Amino acid sequence: MDSLLPKALESAVVLDVQNIACGGRHAALVTKQGEVFSWGEESGGRLGHGVDSDVLQPKLIDALSNTNIELVACGEYHTCAVTLSGDLYTWGDGTYNFGLLGHGNEVSHWVPKRVNGPLEGIHVSSISCGPWHTAVVTSAGQLFTFGDGTFGVLGHGDQNSVSIPREVESLKGLRTVRAACGVWHTAAVVEVMVGNSSSSNCSSGKLFTWGDGDKGRLGHGDKEAKLVPTCVAALVEPNFCQVACGHSLTVALTTSGHVYTMGSPVYGQLGNPQADGKVPTRVEGKLSKSFVEEISCGAYHVAVLTSRTEVYTWGKGANGRLGHGNVDDKNSPTLVEALKDKQVKSIACGTNFTAAICLHKWASGVDQSMCSGCRLPFNFKRKRHNCYNCGLVFCHACSSKKCLKASMAPNPNKPYRVCDNCFNRLRKAIETDASSQSSVSRRGSINHGTNEFVDKDDKLDSRSRAQLARFSPMESFKQGESRSKKNKKLEFNSSRVSPVPNGGSQRGALNISKSFNPVFGSSKKFFSASVPGSRIVSHATSPISRRPSPPRSTTPTPTLGGLTSPKIVVDDAKRTNDGLNQEVTRLRAQVENLTRKTQLQEVELERTTKQLKEAIAIAEEETAKCKAAKEVIKSLTAQLKDMAERLPVGATRNIKSPSFTSFGSSPPSNDASSVSLERPNGQIVYQEPDSNVSSGQLLSNGSNTTNNRSTSHTKQCHSEPATKSGGRSKESEPRNESEWVEQDEPGVYITLTSLPGGAKDLKRVRFSRKRFSEKQAEQWWAENRARVYEQYNVRTIDKSSVGVGSEDLAH
């Protein structure tokens, strides 16, 4: 069910939240004790609990229980955490998201795993997670990115994906302060030296963006993708300190508390109704007179925190993510009224929800924009701190001291920041309490037996602590606090240990807080230890009988720490073994899963290899056939060339047909590729040779031959009377005309006709297109016309009707 208004987070344990991060469908937080809790929808191990089940309330990540975590970050499919020593841990879905976890492989991790490689020995100061990539900023100002490199979102100058952290080369030599990851773009605040002279040089935070430039989300005034970090030219004047990225939005915060947005104006997410998103725009409205200290960005909404601890939100209002009690979109900053009377410390945005960290004690109506001690206003350099005793806000100078037993401290046995007045009062109270406890302890341990008991108790306790030091780290306490605890323990032992008058077996149940023993750290849970009555001996008289107790034994009573330490050690060892067994079980399950996947892949590989072999065999067979066909074609081509060379120049082809029919055959030479036929109306047409006509039909000198010489085709024509020699017409009956073809030279074919009386007539001259163009044919005919008439004894009449146009060129 959606929550339209801010609602307190339900938890089974009391949480003192220091940092919180929100992803798409899960969230994680860090307590002031350095513990990490996560909850939400489980997918690919992003919750870090090692089990595939959703978690409704914050649940401690056991794998990080012994690690002091400083901050966390959540993406869509993975989670990151940074320790106080600067180590980076990641966990989540790495199978379907290449390089998302930075471990150099595509394996999902259901429990946190430390990222090594290039980050080994480097202190990480901040981290940002996008759906498909991650950006890491070190304390030295280096920027590392890894994950999916589409659109150049990693800033390495290409679109390649990277599975291990890789430093952004173009920002080497510059100090990166903050970085933020969107879906397909990244932004960073980088310190750049400004100033004309060496004496006036100073660093200023400039905004760099890269990745997908669609919808103006990079702020460069165009939609071009940037493969390397590029400074936003429109924002070279302001000095930036924070940056956040949404789906199609980039938000930046200056040191003067101003907010700039760039990107798509959809849902009013730019915070300015007049903004079109083409160029960066400053957010005005209700923020014009406010000093913004923190910004956060979801998919399509923005939340900011001002110095007055006021929270403003705008953008898409679906699911109640803006916290105004409705689902309406807001195109300008709107105050979250539900958080008006609460002292908000930090804010964070997920894809479609928002979270805020508030102090345990709500602020009264006092002004939170100035120090309650020196009354100076807070700004970027003068940070605001809260007193853990009175709850008021102070600057660092007025709250630099720490003290035990603050009223709002999560653990009263740890020192927390308090103001100067509260520090003096708490110190006096601690000193008074310590003196009173010391006097009571001295009165309760007058007799020598009790002193001997205490001395041996201290010896046993020291030995047990030395033994436990090998299993868990121990915190150091101040000398006054240690002395106070020792006095309390003495009083406790003296009052709780009682004699057994009848000597029978009796068990005394002892319940103490874990905070009495430094092994338990700051935990407030309780444990019980049962002490056999036969081991307890008192040197004082019994309150039941006035007779002095008989001296049964002089064995000193062991201390509580000595009695319980071995049990605790065993319990810790059992818990450690149980955890290791669970880890082994998970690893075995992963090994079995990977083994099954490997077997399936091997079967698939064998099948693919078999198909490949079959395809290669078929290809080899086809290649052999192709080679054989080429050899045959080559042989036939050689034969044809040989036949063409052996054909004499004066060879004729003559075949008579009793009726008007025509059929194609190969020309007398290999150069000609078509046959010319004459229709009854005297028109000349061309057609491709018939493939069914073989070279066996070749004729020479009017008779058949068997030596593959050229053939000629004849046809019987029925022509109408023609006009010749000055227009005289001669009418004749249908008659047979015999015609044949002479090859004058390669590519030139002359068709002759036999006339009555033994005379010859020139019908047409054909040229091969492979050897002659149209102009070349005309030129040849002009030069050889007289020779042809004389050579073939053609009657010398006007032959202007014989043409050498495109029709006479063989195709």
Explain what this protein looks like in three dimensions.
The protein is α+β, with helices and mostly antiparallel strands and 811 residues long. The chain folds into four domains: 17-358, 7 Propeller (Methylamine Dehydrogenase, Chain H), CATH 2.130.10.30; 371-431, Zinc/RING finger domain, C3HC4 (zinc finger) (Herpes Virus-1); 456-475 and 506-543 and 552-646, no CATH class; 649-720 and 734-810, no CATH class. It has five helices and 43 strands. The strands form 14 sheets. A five-stranded mixed β-sheet has the order 33-40-41-42-43, covered by helices on one side. It has a four-stranded antiparallel β-sheet with strand order 1-2-3-4, with no helix packed on it. The two termini are 83 Å apart. Mean pLDDT is 74; it is low at 443-564, 650-736 and 799-808.
CATH class of the largest domain: Mainly Beta
Q: What gyration radius follows from the Cα positions, in whole Å?
A: 50 Å
Number of domains: 4
- Ends apart, CA distance between termini: 83 Å
Shape annotation: elongated
CATH architecture verdict of the largest domain: 7 Propeller
Total helical elements: 5
Largest pleated sheet: 5 strands, mixed
Task: Record the strand order, biggest sheet.
Answer: 33-40-41-42-43
Question: How many extended strands?
Answer: 43
Average of the residue pLDDT scores: 74
Question: CATH homologous superfamily name of the largest domain?
Answer: Regulator of chromosome condensation 1/beta-lactamase-inhibitor protein II
Unreliable parts: 443-564, 650-736, 799-808
Q: What's the assembly state of these chains? A: single chain
- Residues in β-strands, percent: 25-35%
